[in-house]
Amino acid sequence: MAATPDGGALATAGPSSFDWNVHPSTPTADGGTATEKVARIQADPIRVEGLALAGGELFLDGRQGTGHRLYGFALDAAGRPAGPQTRRSPGLAGSDLPHG
Q1: Which positions ≥6 away from 39 have C-beta within 8 Å?
Q2: φ and ψ at residue 96, rounded to 5 degrees
Q3: Where are the alpha helices (DSSP H) in 6-93?
Q4: What is the pLDDT of residues 33-74, one digit of tens each?
Q5: Main-chain phi, psi angles of 23, to 5 degrees
Q6: Mean pLDDT across the chain, nearest whole number?
Q7: Is the dihedral of CA 86, 45, 22, 9 positive or negative?
Q8: C-beta atoms surrounding 26 within 10 Å
Q9: Count of CA atoms in the C-beta half-sphere (13 A) of 40
Q10: Rg of the chain's alpha carbons, rounded to an integer?
Q11: Which of 25, 58, 68, 81 is most deeply buried (CB count within 10 A of its CB)?
């Protein structure tokens, strides 16, 4: 989030990396706030380096440039994704990851 000159805020957010947008938030006359989507941000491609399945969640080791991130997807009883992608780690250097 960042402040705007008119007293509002600008947020980059969304429910998943596939639906990421810029939302300005401005004060209203009644003391509340108003927000709207004004720009769509393209998804950042991630190269899958590994997959794991445990505890009803599918884990993905994804490479972005020279770093890695671990993501998880909750699964329903039939093994289908049941929610949004969730980041499970900070950015990791390749040397931070165990081999094998």
Answers
A1: 21, 22
A2: -80, -15
A3: none
A4: 888 888 887 776 778 888 999 889 998 888 776 777 888 888
A5: -125, 110
A6: 79
A7: positive
A8: 14
A9: 5
A10: 18
A11: 68
